[in-house]
Amino acid sequence: MGAGSRIADEVSSWEGVTSHPHRFGGVEFRLGKRELGHLHGDRLADIPFPKRVGDELIAAGRARPHHVLPDSGWISRPIERDADADDVVELFRLSYERAVAARARAFRSGRGGACPAR
């Protein structure tokens, strides 16, 4: 099993996460309508964050600027060896935790129709 498959299996196992074909190839993960990020096979993960968070991850050496939208907050994380899969899962987990928190805030404020994942 390649790194991309291991990452996809883990991320897809989290409560409320669904996987879908990504419009530019690969597989996309969502919590409700919110994209948590996507994988380009066994070679690259792209994950959305607010610009500040993306900049912090890049400064810490955990990610690179997005390969197409470098000033957007999206980050890219190359997968160059099997050990990189754990780092990519951690980044997806951060995206997931932010999405769960946003969903809970929307639910509490009456803006969200869906119950939080937790």
What's the number of domains?
Answer: 1
Written as H for each helix and E for each strand, in order along the chain, the element string is: HEEEEHEEH
Number of strands: 6
How far apart the termini lie comes to 30 Å
Helix content range: 25-40%
Q: Write down the Rg.
A: 14 Å
Can you summarize the main beta sheet? 6 strands, antiparallel
CATH architecture assignment: Alpha-Beta Complex
Number of helices, where a helix is a run of at least 4 consecutive DSSP H or I residues: 3
Could you describe the 3D structure shown?
The mean pLDDT is 90. Strand 2 and strand 3 form a beta hairpin. The relative contact order is 0.18. Helix 1 runs parallel beside helix 3. Strands 1-2-3-4-6-5 form a 6-stranded antiparallel beta sheet. Helix content is 38%, strand content 23%. The chain has a single domain, classed as Aspartate Aminotransferase, domain 1 (Alpha-Beta Complex), CATH 3.90.1150.30. It has 118 residues and is an alpha+beta fold. The protein is built from 3 helices and 6 strands.
Tell me the layout of helices and strands.
Blueprint: H1 3-12, E1 17-21, E2 27-31, E3 34-40, E4 44-47, H2 51-59, E5 64-65, E6 75-78, H3 84-109
Antiparallel strand pairs: 1-2, 2-3, 3-4, 4-6, 5-6
Task: Sum this structure up briefly.
Helix content is 38%, strand content 23%. It has helices spanning 3-12, 51-59, 84-109; strands at residues 17-21, 27-31, 34-40, 44-47, 64-65, 75-78.
Main features:
118 residues, Aspartate Aminotransferase, domain 1, 6-stranded antiparallel beta sheet, alpha+beta, globular, 3 helices
